[in-house]
Fold these 3 entries.
Entry 1:
Amino acid sequence: MPLIASMKTDVIFYELIKELPQIFFEIIDQPDTNPNIYTFIAPEIKQQSFHFDG
């Protein structure tokens, strides 16, 4: 049976990029990129639950 890890949102990192979008491009070594042409979002995707009943 494969192990499926759940992914959690890193709130601090998301808030930092939301407030200072240029920092994202510095992290990925693209400091000359204009962050104003991008939209930073954190969509929530939920998987259908599975239940094993009796």
Entry 2:
Amino acid sequence: MTQKITIADYGVGNLLNVARAFQHCGADVHVTENPSEIAEAERLVVPGVGAFEDSINELTRRGFADEIKRYAESARPLFGICVGMQMLFDVSEEFGEHKGLGILPGRVKAVPNTTTSGQMQRVPHIGWGHLLHPETGRTWQGTFLQSFESARPAVYFVHSFAAYPERDADRLADCLYGGHRICAAVKRDNIVATQFHPERSGEIGLAMVRSFLAL
């Protein structure tokens, strides 16, 4: 059975690559600029690139913010990508303090510009990183990462800020950057989100998309 995917087009985001990835995996993709269509979505994807403030302002101005919050309260799957993940949290510290959607408790903070040994490191964090289980010991069984339970899949990151979930139970996967644990993915109930870009992570990323479609 073909899964129907709705992608929120709020004027900021890498929509083409995300849409192509889901189409490649067999989904029936609908990209919408109409926030009222979110209420009828079977599965919702919220992508995002660039600055948090620009993204959340456009999301709100175009009427998507309240619709996404209502959708998140349903049992239907929601997938946030990169800034689309960050906006799910309470607040971001990027270029000042900006309120997010408040769907997940936590803050978005800068990626450290020094390693754990005190050496300077490049920010933004750009490139491939391996996913790790969080220190809580949470497994990936029953999630879109379940096929990688015994592996350390490499995925593609481009970001200067990262989410710091308030609830350890929301944290699904980390990556290491300069020795620091960075939250790479979250999951709570019907909500999943990634700081990395599955649509730019090759066959591994496509496998994660297929797994999300199967949830």
Entry 3:
Amino acid sequence: MHDAVKDVVRQVTPTVHYHTASWSAQSEPCLQVADYCCWAIARKWERGDCSAYDLVRDKVQSEFDVWRRGTMLYY
């Protein structure tokens, strides 16, 4: 991940100084919850399966389909 960020920053803004940081998953107690919520929302949008989403629906404040205006498929 660090190398990918470094490559993009070098291409886009080569004079900017930056630092990337990451922590272990064990250090963030809510990481699994956030991951589950993102997965549930993605499953709803990509497959039309709302079973997992329905469990977290009341916790989701907003959603926005960032790809709705384009015609290119991203994977």
